[in-house]
Automatic annotation (TrEMBL):
Stated name of the protein: Glycosyl hydrolase
PROSITE patterns: PROKAR_LIPOPROTEIN
InterPro entries the record matches: Glyco_hydro_beta-prop_sf
Keywords for the protein's UniProt record, in alphabetical order: Hydrolase
Molecular function per GO: hydrolase activity
Lineage summary: Bacteria, Pseudomonadati, Bacteroidota, Cytophagia, Cytophagales
Length: 395
């Protein structure tokens, strides 16, 4: 057999193997497909169930024709007052909105000045918009006009684990206390720096907040850098999904324990067929202050650049936007860990903060009726906006 014949035979074998395995490796088994009622096929506009394309198998397996209970779209609006866009000021990553005695509060990352990136030769230069940040808060009575009240969490003393930046807060009101979880970075800020997650608490929404002296979550310690160059892509071993970063902490009391959801970034991150390697994980504790133990089921999602989760029907729902093969989806985990896609969205607001007064149990997407998010127009032009979720009409 000449080389050309070998290539043709190999191509035919690969194609045949793909056809044979398609129904099992990319969807329901043949037996499961046969058991689906005819109505399911009709809803997916599949009239000949004896000849199923790969697309039809995916539609049946993923229930693409499911009713629009979990589907919605979004609008964005500018805010007024101190949270309106302000040149030279970065405000981003807003927390959920809490209401105390008819006053709304939100917490967020704030920094000033230009971001220079890495490699400037001056380690004191601001690297990212969230570098050299503190956590600020603002108040409102209507959700539109906001008054800035000042910093509530500041960077730590020199040499501490949070001396470079504190950012990306999330608020939890629990047992008459106000708990903030947030990201921290120790100086110097390099490409290979590994951030951590911290916690602070107060008896009042305006503070003062008391910091725990140690972080409550750190990246996995199972990756190995390659060489000494400050390059986050050069690795000998990538390690776990969170071997480099643990971001966007969100704390949820759940099933008598405390579930700390977070986004992981991997050492030596590579581009996949869906873009960046971004996934969520969860760490669980018996006590609020920890210790937090990472779930053996991590990672628990395949996508989601920022965290947005809420309780629903005994489980946990989440909005996943940006990065990964399941971006722009709403998912639900009946046990807080095993997430299933419930709807596919056109797009979603970034860094969502929910209104915690919402009745989340009203529907799967009630949590997304309105809230705050951030808008990035240029690297150092980042500001907080309001989003609204709505059910679209078929044109």
């Amino acid at each position: 057999m000449n080389n050309l014949s070998r290539y043709i035979a190999l191509a035919l074998l690969i194609g045949l193997s793909s056809c044979i395995s398609d129904s099992s490796s990319h969807g329901l088994s043949e037996e499961a497909l046969e058991q689906l009622p005819q109505e399911v096929y009709k809803r997916n506009a599949i009239m000949n169930r004896s000849h199923l394309s790969a697309a039809s198998i995916r539609a049946l397996s993923n229930n693409y024709s499911e009713a629009s209970t979990w589907y919605l779209e979004f609008r964005l609006h500018d805010l007024k007052g101190d949270l309106a866009f302000e040149p030279g000021v970065v405000r981003r990553d807003p927390s959920d909105i809490i209401t105390v005695k008819d006053t709304m509060y939100v917490y967020y990352t704030k920094s000033l000045g230009k971001s220079h990136g890495f490699g400037t030769g001056d380690p004191s230069n601001k690297v990212f918009p969230w570098d050299k940040s503190d956590i600020w808060m603002a108040m409102s009575v209507d959700g539109w006009n906001w008054e800035e009240l000042g910093a509530v969490i500041k960077r730590g003393n020199e040499g501490s684990f949070d001396d470079r930046s504190v950012f990306t807060p999330q608020i939890l009101v629990h047992e008459n206390r106000y708990i903030l979880v947030y990201q921290t970075v120790r100086s110097p800020y390099s490409n290979r720096v590994k951030n951590q997650v911290a916690m602070a608490w107060s008896d009042h929404p305006r503070g003062p907040f008391n910091k725990l002296t140690e972080p409550i979550l750190s990246p996995a310690d199972d990756g190995v850098w390659d060489g000494n160059e400050d390059n986050r892509y050069n690795v000998k071993v990538q390690g776990s999904f969170d071997s480099h970063k643990v971001h966007d902490p969100t704390l949820v009391p759940y099933q008598g324990k405390y579930y700390l959801y977070y986004k992981g970034e991997r050492m030596g991150e590579k581009l996949t067929n869906a873009g960046r390697e971004i996934r969520w994980g969860v760490a669980i504790a018996d006590q609020l202050e920890g210790p937090y133990t990472k779930s053996p089921y991590n990672p628990i999602t395949n996508s989601g650049h920022q965290l947005c989760v809420w309780p629903y029907q005994g489980g946990i729902a989440g909005l996943l936007v940006s990065d990964g093969p399941e971006k722009n989806t709403i998912q639900w985990a009946p046990d807080g860990i095993n997430f299933h896609i419930k709807s596919y969205l056109k797009w979603g607001p970034e860094a969502v903060g929910l209104d915690q007064t919402t009745d989340f149990e009203h529907s799967g997407v009630a949590a997304l009726r309105w809230g705050v998010c951030h808008q990035v127009t240029m690297p150092d032009q980042q500001y907080i906006r309001r989003f609204e979720g709505f059910k679209p009409m078929i044109p």
